[in-house]
Amino acid sequence: MAPMPELSARGRVVRVGYSMNVHPCESVDELEAALRAGPAEIRKRLFPGKPTGAGLRLSAAAAEQLVFDAARLQRLKALVDSLGLFAFTANAFPAGNFNSGRVKEEVFRPSWRDPARAAYTLAAAHALAGLGGGPEVTLSTVAGGYRADGDDRRARDEMARQLAQVAAGLHTLRVETGVSVRVCLEPEPLTTCETAADVVEFFRHHVYPGGERALYGTDKYNHEQATDILHEHLGVCLDACHHAVMWEDAADVVDRYDRAGIEIGKVQVTCAVEGPPAELARLAEPRYFHQVCAAGGRRAADLPEAVGWTEGVARSHFHVPVFLEEIGGLRTTQSFLRTVIDLVLERGLCSDFEIETYTWDVIPPADRERLCGPTLIDCLVREYGWLLEVLQARP
């Protein structure tokens, strides 16, 4: 594989990594072990001698430890530097354990109505800023909360106020450190914001007006400053799998964010799986939600609920290897992903790309080993190879 040239998106250097939520990273010790075993090994295989991006997984417990223990944060920074890595983004979506037991709806909790979500996000932001990954870094987070826990105007206004307070905290962090952290809401089926249209509505009718009032009302910022703070520190994480599951059009997704002036902080390089519902059902497993949406609009929260469906084609939120157009006789949404990458680069809307296939240990072993490789690193190397080829093919 040829080394990756320095690519740019209208003047911004393209940064590539993979989300470390594929590793156990609940504690700082686990995070350090994962950095050695994952991104450092990727660097050796693909980018020897070059600084290499890392997409951290910061749990609530790890973020809290790092923000309250300056010496521990400095040791982590020293490790990151010694491994030749730079942490340009982090996943602060799942607050708790993500790699064992039943995750399902717990991944969406706490919601942005809960001050615990704001505290967790600010702690993760301070930790990420302290690692020196660049003057602009991003955090991905849940797009509101789990809809089943409550979704009305009051709930959304409360979320907007919490997001505004976090944005104000990130403004202070930038003034103190020179690092601008952008919190990126990641729309997903079953959350407050499921689609690009939902995100635009949430920002237009709740985040911007409510957030501006919340900040302007403190007498600390004028109206223009409040607006600037929200636009600088809030944005969207475009997970291609999630949008594809909802049968959105890739060009329409990018257009909506572009027209609304909502910054795409990062693109999560992901593919969903598509096929007859009865065949998709064999991928059901007990850890994660695998939301299902049929081409005609019929929906299910998880694969077992779609077992009896007999009509048409459906897509499921089951992240599958991005280099595959089909797996186990089922198609993937790779073409959707390609379109997203092309459009955001062509328009200079995003320069950060994070591979996020976290399902390696729940993909049927026969499919994984036959199509992807014997080890996790082998699988990740193949995903990097596909993404780099797509990036390098652009004029």
Written overview of the protein:
There is one protein chain. The protein is of the alpha/beta class and 395 residues long. The protein has one domain: TIM Barrel. The protein is 43% helix and 18% strand. The strands form three sheets. Strands 3-16-9-8-7-6-5-4 form an eight-stranded parallel sheet. It has a six-stranded antiparallel sheet with strand order 12-11-13-10-15-14. Strand 11 and strand 12 (299-300) form a beta hairpin. The protein is globular, with a radius of gyration of 20 Å. Mean pLDDT is 94; it is low at 1-5.
Keywords:
395 residues, 8-stranded parallel beta sheet, globular, 6-stranded antiparallel beta sheet, TIM Barrel, 14 helices
Helical region count? 14
Number of strands: 16
Beta-strand proportion = 15-25%
Flag low-confidence runs.
1-5
Known CATH architecture: Alpha-Beta Barrel
CATH superfamily: Divalent-metal-dependent TIM barrel enzymes
The quaternary state of the protein chains shown equals single chain
Main pleated-sheet profile: 8 strands, parallel
The overall number of domains is: 1
Per CATH, the class reads Alpha Beta
Rg computed from alpha carbons, rounded to a whole number of angstroms: 20 Å
CATH fold call: TIM Barrel
Through-space gap between termini: 19 Å
Shape annotation? globular
**What does the average pLDDT come to?**
94
What topology, given as strand order, has the largest sheet?
3-16-9-8-7-6-5-4
SSE pattern, N- to C-terminal: EEEHHEHHEHEHEHHEHHEEHEEEEEHEHH
